[in-house]
Amino acid sequence: SPNSSYSEFGISVSISGNYIVVGAKSNSTDQDNLNTLNYAGAAYIFENTEGVWSQTQKIVAFDRATYDAFGQSVSITDGYLVVSSGSYNDELGENPTDFIWGGAYIYEYSNGIWDFMQKITTQNKMRYSRTALSVSIDNQSLIVSAEESDEIDGLADGGAYIFENANGTWEAKKSILFTELLNNDYSFTPVSISGNNAVIGAPGEDSDVLGENFLSAAGSIYFMNKSTNTGFNNLISKSLNVYPNPSDGHLMIEGNFGTVESLRVSDISGRSVFEQSNPIFSNSVDISNLDKGIYFIEIQSNKQSYCAKIVLK
Fold first, then answer.
1. pLDDT at 36
2. CA triplet 251, 257, 263: central angle to 5 degrees?
3. What angle do CA 24, 30, 36 make, to 5 degrees?
4. Model pLDDT for residues 36-90, shown as the tens digit of each residue
5. CB 299 within 8 A of CB 233
6. pLDDT value, residue 239
7. pLDDT averaged over every residue in the chain
């Protein structure tokens, strides 16, 4: 561990092959253990050589600043690692206690050194929003969690963003934003990704898969699979308004979609349970024949996907 008090070395860890990355979000010195900035954070790389783990590198953010908490979450895969800065990151020069954006820093292994590659932040920089509370990387895919809030309702709507490596540039592919239904359930969202599968934690969720049996902050997880066209290919946002929710299955749908090409309802496993191709869209749908539970309703319009989570009771 670093020879300094209150570094919080070990706050996050990840291992892949012969490499370990360890976060120290409260460390205050740079890569040379100089230039103190309180709680700027750092990450430490260890390599296994003939059974002995030795530190080979210390990483800090290129734009490090006081209270950044760089190293809050870390993840490593073959040739890439990502480190989150989940606290204050004042890119606009405003008061850092007002804008808590954070970000994810991606590094690539080259010639024995982990070199900075790219910084990722969300486009939805709202007041008191926090990006990269949790990060996970697997090969060419990255998932980054976020807690978002605003000044109107003050409620935290958690979610995650999927990025994929396209010829050396990590591009945002999909947003998975849980809104409207269960505000505050997704704060401090943990995430993990492996191959086509991703899982998102909702530690504050209060109800079971049927939207019933209330237990305060009992928690839940959401599993998504890329190959089943669920989660990765959906945008869950306030652009689609479905009501009443929870419902008996008789739903009204509102949104600025243009020409609707298809409508699809899937269960939590990704299985399609209701579909309409080129429907005559009448702003209503009847799925009252389905069993009680959680479903996702997706509308495809002009090559853009809108999705909402619904509960049938």
1. 94
2. 50
3. 95
4. 999 999 999 999 999 999 999 999 999 898 888 999 999 999 999 999 987 654 4
5. no
6. 58
7. 78
